[in-house]
Amino acid sequence: MRERVFGQGRDNMIRRTARILEIIQQIAGAPGRWSRQKLAEYHEVSERMIQKDLELIRHRLGLELRHENGTYFFQRLPRVPTTVYPLSEALALLMAARAAQAIPGVNSAELAAAIARLESIFPPSLGHLVQEAIDELPRRAVKGHRQTMLTLLH
Fold first, then answer.
1. Any bridge partners for residue 68, and if so which?
2. Cβ contacts of 77-84, under 8 Å, gap ≥ 24
3. Using alpha carbons only, how large is the chain's radius of gyration in Å?
4. Per-residue pLDDT tens for 81-105?
5. What is the DSSP string of the chain?
6. Using CA atoms, how far apart are residues 12 and 8, in angstroms rounded to an integer?
7. What is the pTM of this model?
8. CA distances (Å), 81 to each of 29, 61, 84, in order?
9. 26-56 pLDDT, tens per residue?
């Protein structure tokens, strides 16, 4: 009998959730490019696991995922409603997004677009102050920079 490692099931669930979100991004970003085989190779899992992920995306999440000529695309993706943020929350989101650029595995193109959108909601009179604060954030996550990053984020 194999010994069960504490937290192993949770780790697998987190990995699967991250994989499903990335699959949604991959298909949305390049409709008609990703086949089940390419997704399986990219994510280093079986095609059967990818099929289960695709079924979850289609049936449990309710996204209009279509399959044509061996590849996948979304008929339509839901739009996220526009939200109004108080200045402090907008600044916190912007700083968190910029800090996320230092984390491997985050889609840099989509993160850059989100950052640009967040930066655009600040009044022009605060633009230079926001930019100065952001420019002070370290570009890579290094253990020694943790306190500096937290202080700057605060």
1. 71
2. 77/28
3. 19
4. 777 878 778 877 887 887 777 766 6
5. -PPPPTTHHHHHHHHHHHHHHHHHHHHHHSTTT--HHHHHHHHTS-HHHHHHHHHIIIIIS---EEEETTEEEES--PPPPP----HHHHHHHHHHHHHHTTSTTS-HHHHHHHHHHHHHTS-HHHHHHHHHHHHTS-SS--GGGHHHHHHHH-
6. 6
7. 0.56
8. 20, 18, 10
9. 999 899 999 999 999 999 999 999 999 999 9
User: Is the separation of the CB atoms in 59 and 99 below 8 Å?
Assistant: no
Residues in the chain: 154
Region class of 9: left (phi > 0), else alpha (psi between -120 and 50), else beta: alpha
Cα 26 to chain centroid distance, Å, stands at: 11
